[in-house]
Design brief:
mainly beta, Jelly Rolls, 7-stranded mixed sheet, two-stranded antiparallel ribbon
Length: about 120
């Protein structure tokens, strides 16, 4: 069964950013959102790395046919970067990140570098 987490912005009074599928396995992280036709409103994918890293938090948009809002988060759950990722591009954070949150471009409005986030399991929300 897939694990889902609510990503909340603690810096902005716990405002919910997105409901994201927890993606920790190598295969899940490799596949990401490739070859999907769309992403439902309010949903995203949280790619979970093993440690903070610039290179390991890089993403590609090959096989992704729509733009994504991408947020990089370090192991202390602080936002260290964000970008609008377009199809066919390669993107990496400027600072080391452990988590990569991918969602519709509108998620970029709800987070800013330096914000502190929280992941709440959907069953607990």
């Amino acid at each position: 069964m897939a694990r889902w987490v609510r990503v909340r912005n603690q810096t902005r009074q716990g405002e919910m950013v997105v409901l994201a599928r927890w993606c920790e396995s190598h295969l899940c992280r490799l596949r990401g959102l490739t070859f999907r036709s769309k992403l439902p409103d309010g949903q995203g994918l949280l790619l979970v790395g093993q440690k903070d890293s610039i290179s390991l938090a890089a993403i590609h948009m090959f096989g992704v046919f729509f733009s994504l809002g991408v947020v990089w988060i370090d192991s202390s759950l602080r936002v260290v970067g964000k970008t609008l990722a377009r199809p066919l591009g390669i993107y990496r954070p400027e600072a080391a990140a452990r988590y990569v949150l991918e969602g519709r471009p509108s998620i970029l409005e709800g987070v800013h570098p330096g914000d502190w986030l929280e992941f709440v399991d959907e069953a607990q929300a």
